[in-house]
């Protein structure tokens, strides 16, 4: 690890006016600093900032420093959020990692972590060995010729499905950005992963009220049952009226460079009877536009099946 | 920088580099060697300690950021009287080489305290290269039953 200065600002104002990299749970930052992938000169420990609280009175509001495990355990949180969190990482990491930090975890792959390899994200212009290399875990949607790494957050998939927003603070005030607009596709600049400006800090995550999200879930398909990244995942919610789908939310993970909402699948579900046949027809368009690599073409059909399975979980026992 | 750490009920004043992890501070500065350096990357769980009563990975925690009391495996027993989870690990032969055991025990204590339903899922952040998993699960079950009878 390279030497750095560590300070602990006491207020949000002090934090956003001090130069440096923010440290919350540290589960990504400290790891990447040990590998010399990230080499900040100044680190700001923000854990003393008053960015706490879980409010479920009208929609959901999470202080950015709330830990993943605490949000998962809160009874007022929509099922797709708590399930996505519970299926993430390990219990130790969930005790450490903040919700704000989870959303800012780097879009990354094993080549990004290996400083002996080229990587357009780590060293712009150096090339992407994953595109012709080992790419079983990589993305099939939202990729570019510069980068094919996946965004690994599970809860971000659920939050994008729920139209969540992040509140951001900076020297010039605060602003609110929809999480779906917050993430940037890699394009020619995979080193820029989101809309966060220098010095800007996530202070709060806001989920608009959606009563029918009580019928929601998150399904994660992995190489092993626990403590593993998604091959594919799906966050789904259904509003079922008289055995028909009045409205639907579908977003997927493990397959894309950003948390990936699927409006075409949602549209195909609306008005359809809540049957497996409808789910399969809707899911058949999920991977439209996908660009599979040599090692991950299996994700196309696996993604479709993951969506169907998640939708079936929501209707199992309530139909017919 | 000057920091103070409360470990197993004792306060320690230390001068550390900002990059020193809690794991290295415990092992190299305080000679508290229960927490083990397995992967040093937050992947294996051998370094698990409790901070503020919750299991965390001491290898990914900077010592200078720790404000709450730290408990390591050394802080569990009351002298020669083992903690029920330690007793259960011994009874169930829940180890082979023992390197991962301090971390396993710290996670298992939390599993019992929280009354978790899915032990295997909860313990998945603690890797055992000897693959003593069936006996580790049995140890957690034994400790949970002992806990329920208290």
Layout of helices and strands, plus pairs?
The complex is a heterodimer of chains A (320) and B (150).
Chain A: E1 5-7, H1 12-16, E2 21-23, H2 29-34, E3 42-45, E4 54-55, E5 60-63, H3 68-73, H4 79-86, H5 91-96, H6 99-103, H7 110-113, H8 155-161, E6 165-170, E7 173-178, H9 179-182, E8 201-207, E9 216-221, E10 232-241, E11 244-253, E12 260-261, H10 263-269, H11 276-283, H12 298-315
Parallel strand pairs in A: 1-3, 2-3
Antiparallel strand pairs in A: 4-5, 5-8, 6-7, 6-8, 9-10, 10-11, 11-12
Helix pairs in contact in A: 4-8, 10-11, 11-12
Chain B: E1 2-7, E2 10-15, H1 22-29, E3 48-51, E4 54-57, E5 70-71, H2 84-91, H3 101-114, H4 119-122, H5 133-149
Antiparallel strand pairs in B: 1-2, 3-4, 3-5
Can you tell me about this structure?
The complex is a heterodimer of chains A (320) and B (150). By secondary structure, chain A is an alpha+beta fold. Among the domains of chain A are: 5-47, Uridine Diphospho-n-acetylenolpyruvylglucosamine Reductase, domain 2 (2-Layer Sandwich); 211-315, Enolase-like, domain 1 (2-Layer Sandwich). Chain A has 12 helices and 12 strands. In chain A, the strands form 3 sheets. Chain A has a 5-stranded antiparallel β-sheet. A 4-stranded antiparallel β-sheet of chain A has the order 9-10-11-12, with helices on both faces. In chain A, helix 4 runs antiparallel to helix 8, helix 10 packs antiparallel against helix 11 and helix 11 runs antiparallel to helix 12. The termini of chain A are far apart. The mean pLDDT of chain A is 97. Chain B has 150 residues and is α+β, with helices and mostly antiparallel strands. Chain B folds into 2 domains: 2-75, Beta-grasp domain (Ubiquitin-like (UB roll), Roll), CATH 3.10.20; 84-149, [2Fe-2S]-binding domain (DNA polymerase, domain 1). Helices cover 34% and strands 15% of the residues of chain B. Chain B contains 5 helices and 5 strands; from the N terminus they run ββαβββαααα. Chain B has helices at 22-29, 84-91, 101-114, 119-122, 133-149; strands at residues 2-7, 10-15, 48-51, 54-57, 70-71. Chain B has a 3-stranded antiparallel β-sheet, with helices on one face. A two-stranded antiparallel ribbon of chain B has the order 1-2. In chain B, strand 3 (48-51) and strand 4 (54-57) form a beta hairpin. Chain B starts with a strand and ends with a helix. The mean pLDDT of chain B is 97. The interface between A and B is medium-sized, with 28 and 28 residues.
């Amino acid at each position: 690890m390279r030497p750095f200065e560590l300070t602990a600002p006491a207020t949000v104002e002090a934090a956003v006016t001090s130069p440096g990299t923010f440290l919350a749970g540290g589960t990504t930052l400290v790891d990447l600093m040990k590998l010399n992938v990230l080499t900040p000169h100044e680190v700001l420990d923000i854990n003393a900032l008053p960015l706490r609280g879980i409010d479920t009175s009208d929609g959901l509001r999470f202080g950015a420093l709330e830990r993943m495990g605490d949000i998962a355990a809160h009874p007022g949180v929509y099922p797709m959020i708590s399930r996505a969190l519970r299926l993430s990482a390990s219990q130790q990491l969930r005790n450490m990692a903040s919700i704000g930090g989870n959303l800012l975890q780097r879009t990354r792959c094993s080549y990004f972590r290996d400083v002996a390899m080229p990587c357009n994200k780590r060293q712009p212009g150096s090339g992407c060995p994953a595109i012709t290399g080992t790419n079983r875990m990589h993305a099939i949607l939202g990729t570019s010729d510069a980068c094919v790494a996946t965004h690994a957050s599970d809860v971000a998939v659920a939050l994008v499905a729920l139209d969540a927003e992040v509140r951001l603070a900076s020297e010039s005030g605060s602003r609110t950005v929809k999480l779906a607009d917050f993430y940037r596709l890699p394009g020619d600049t995979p080193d820029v992963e989101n809309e966060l400006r220098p010095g800007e800090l996530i202070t709060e995550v806001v989920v608009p009220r959606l009563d029918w999200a009580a019928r929601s879930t998150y399904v994660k398909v992995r190489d092993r049952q626990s403590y593993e990244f998604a091959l594919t995942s799906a966050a789904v919610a259904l509003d079922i009226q008289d055995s028909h789908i009045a409205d639907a939310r579908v977003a997927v993970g493990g397959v894309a460079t950003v948390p990936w909402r699927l409006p075409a699948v949602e549209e195909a579900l609306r008005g359809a009877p809540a049957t497996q046949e409808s789910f399969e027809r809707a899911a058949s368009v999920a991977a439209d536009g996908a660009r599979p690599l040599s090692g991950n073409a299996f994700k196309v059909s696996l993604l479709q099946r993951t969506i169907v399975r998640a939708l079936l979980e929501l209707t199992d026992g309530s139909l017919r | 920088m000057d920091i103070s750490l409360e470990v197993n009920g004792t306060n320690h004043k230390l001068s550390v580099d900002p990059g020193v992890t809690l794991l290295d501070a415990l092992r190299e500065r305080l000679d508290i060697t229960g927490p083990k350096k397995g992967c040093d990357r937050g992947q294996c769980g051998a370094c698990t300690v409790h901070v503020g009563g919750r299991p965390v990975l001491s290898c990914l925690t900077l010592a200078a950021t720790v404000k709450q009391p730290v408990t390591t495996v050394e802080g569990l027993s009351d002298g020669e009287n083992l903690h029920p989870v330690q007793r259960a690990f011994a009874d169930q032969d829940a180890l082979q080489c023992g390197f991962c055991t301090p971390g396993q025990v710290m996670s298992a204590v939390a599993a019992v305290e929280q009354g978790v339903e899915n032990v295997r899922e909860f313990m998945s952040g603690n890797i055992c290269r000897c693959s003593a998993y069936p006996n580790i699960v049995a140890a957690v079950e034994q400790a949970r039953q002992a806990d329920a009878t208290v």
